[in-house]
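Suppose a classmate hands you a notebook page containing two proteins, each written out with its sequence and a corresponding row of structure tokens. How would you begin to make sense of it? This section walks through that situation. The first entry is reproduced here exactly as it would appear on such a page.
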Amino acid sequence: MATSARQRQKRLEKKNQKRKLAKKAIPTLLQSGKKAAAYAKYPIHECLVPEGLFDIGIGEIVVTRKTAGGDIALSAFILDVFCLGVKNALFKVMNEHDYHYKYKKAIAQSHEGREFNETHPSCVKKLIEDAVSYAEELGFPPHKDYKNSKGLLIGIDPKTCPVTYRYGQDNKPFFIQGPHETPSQVKKILGKLHNKCGDGGYNYTAFF
């Protein structure tokens, strides 16, 4: 194997490990069972995007609003910007202490200590919605809980965001098998990519 090929493989292995860790954040939390749209009337508290999202390809995007009583209404999205869009989503309401000292600590640990940058709500909404559109064009709908979780984004105008986001990697979809994807799921995903993009039109890393 050429040196450049070995270096590329090492970089991919490192990214895969970070992706696996990033995916552990949302499944450990429970849905609140409440309607996110009902909380869209409250002011934005903060919106967080992990550093290096477009280098690693996946991360947890967090949108929060603060209620009149001081609680934090939170929607979180596991976003795969390389291929699959919203892989997981949740909406939850918690007290401010738990949000700042438990939830944020948990997601920092799951992202190997990567920094989370406060981002303008318009850009966060654009980032999420454009990722969903990109994935849907490839044949991958967002996670079933996205329908409720996106309700917290009501009233935010993505058109005011000046940033242009580029999805995929090297102008192609790039599927990286996650720790919870079975061989049959991987084959189905690759089949959709092949049908949509053809030979050489996409890249992937799979271990089935």
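The notebook's second entry, a different protein, reads as follows.
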Amino acid sequence: MQTSDFDYDLPPELIAQRPPERRGDSRMMVVNRAEGTIEHRQFTDFPSLVEKDDLLVFNDTRVVAARFFSNDGKQEILRVDALGPNVWKCLVKPGKKFKPGRTVEIGDSTGTVIEVCEEGGERIIEFDEAPDESTHGHMALPPYIDRADEADDRQRYQTVFARESGAIAAPTAGLHFTDEMMAELPHEFVTLHVGIGTFRPVSSDDLSEHHMHSERYRLSERVAERIRSAGRVIAVGTTVVRVLETCSERSAGELKGGEGDTDIFIYPPYEFGVVDALLTNFHLPKSTLLMLVSAMAGTDLIREAYRKAVEERYRFFSYGDCMLIV
């Protein structure tokens, strides 16, 4: 398949710039693969669609405030990895200001560029002391959200169950859930720290030539055992799919616990080994996430679902509405 097979037209005004007023006040499209049907519901209907032996699996990663600005406001860094307490791997703006030996001041901290990474252009910056995240850190909202982060984003661009710090971006399917809904649903957690690669476009039109970014994950054996005994496994978000399918592939089809890095690239045709259903948001044109969703529901059905989502004025992307594939 070609990257261009996953393109679609999206009016810019349908890109959600802010979350709904209340968590959970979202629309939900239900895509039934067996019947080939598309139904328009509200997310508040979700618990009624969960069956007795189902198990929901969530990603409990916690988004960190990884975006920083220099004291003069002219330089920006995004920490993509902490290589040590005071040594960060960062994306930077503007690149010409971050040559080896150049410094950046953030609060009382001074960082020095010690290396330029050849492959991705990131900079390795060593600080005399790490900038204080609580004071100077900003949530790294996705580039399609055309505004600066605000105080409310610290809560709303975070799931209510987030606990394992390390993500740059939120596992957005989980943003719809409230504490009250979580209390009534059978669930378990895995961890995958969402990286900046989530937003990077596919560089080649030939999918076989695309190399996925790598992200850290963990699945406990206790959770794996419960998943193995579940009737239907509902992944909440594409990040959960990546963890479960990675662990299944690495143990020859039998789900076992584990941790490490995954660069799994799921696109049609793909035979899922663990995941039976998926709750997910609407994804960018030509993105690897849209390809994963198409692998689960079929390219033609997803293409029609997205056409109807635009026609029905659904809200798209991180702060937008969701889709349940059963």
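A careful reader of the second entry would note: The CA atoms of residues 135 and 302 lie 43 Å apart.
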